[in-house]
Amino acid sequence: MKEGAPAFTVSQPATAQDVLEKRAKEKSVDLAIVPEHTLLANVKLGLEAPFQRSNASLAIALTSAHLRSLPNAPQILPSALPQEFIHGLEQVRWPGRCETRRENGVVWHIDSAHTLESIRLAASWFATCIPAPSSQALSGDGPRSIRVLLFNQQTRDAPALARALHSTLVAALEKGQQPFTHTVFCTNRTFQEDGYRPDLVSLKTDTQEVDALAVQKGLRDTWSRLDGGASDVVVKSSIEEAVEWVRSIARNERAGEKDVSVLVTGSVHLVGGFLEVLEGARREL
Fold first, then answer.
1. What is residue 97's three-state secondary structure?
2. In 33-55, which positions are buried (b, 16+ CB within 10 angstroms) versus exposed (e)?
3. pLDDT digits (tens, 9 = 90+) for 26-46
4. Is the pTM of the predicted complex or chain greater than 0.85?
5. Which of 98, 129, 193, 117 is nearest to 161 (CA)?
6. Nearest to 90 by CA among 59, 62, 113
């Protein structure tokens, strides 16, 4: 915070809010807590998740404050939402964050999440994206909706993230539904033959652990206990192999015209590699 400059935040946990307020007082700064902008209810954000409305509201407040500091700039009333703002909010794109991509038979829902809070938000967003099953599907008399999880976090807290993801989705979905019909845990290795893209290598990675698929096998065991064997759980040694496995499900198992819904989440290295696999395939077409 800088003395004489306004500061803005959104609703925070009490401990974080206390820190912000203490610092604002030290710097003699007016700290504003920005509520969700009422007019955002009528805006389809480029970043789809409900929690992004809080980020969008903060962006509106920051931009409006900056315009007020400029000579001859338009002054934006707090209750207003200019068309230029709406256009920007609707057109914004952030690859790998609350992003949806489509290809033949597959809808990829992509959101990197490597903390308990972010994994719960990613799960909640995914729950809003997937179509509700028919009564016939719930009773077992109709075609089931295929949902796939593609996940990795190459750290010791990976099982805790998996448990948070599972519990959030179970709470969000209709009673009796399991979150996923298929689950694949892979390493962050981008390609089966060529290995990692240079800018997607984590220096903290234990090479022997990756080669042994130790984290992935642990995640497989954790997930199998969580869903009681309700989903088909596999381990793959690369993101490329995991993507191809999902595509094979779309080719061989989906019912009629129903797309396979996939949540790709976990490490930013996983999501970055996943986007490289998808984009690489598109460049080859």
1. coil
2. ebeebeebeebebbbbbebbbbb
3. 999 999 999 999 999 889 998
4. no
5. 117
6. 59
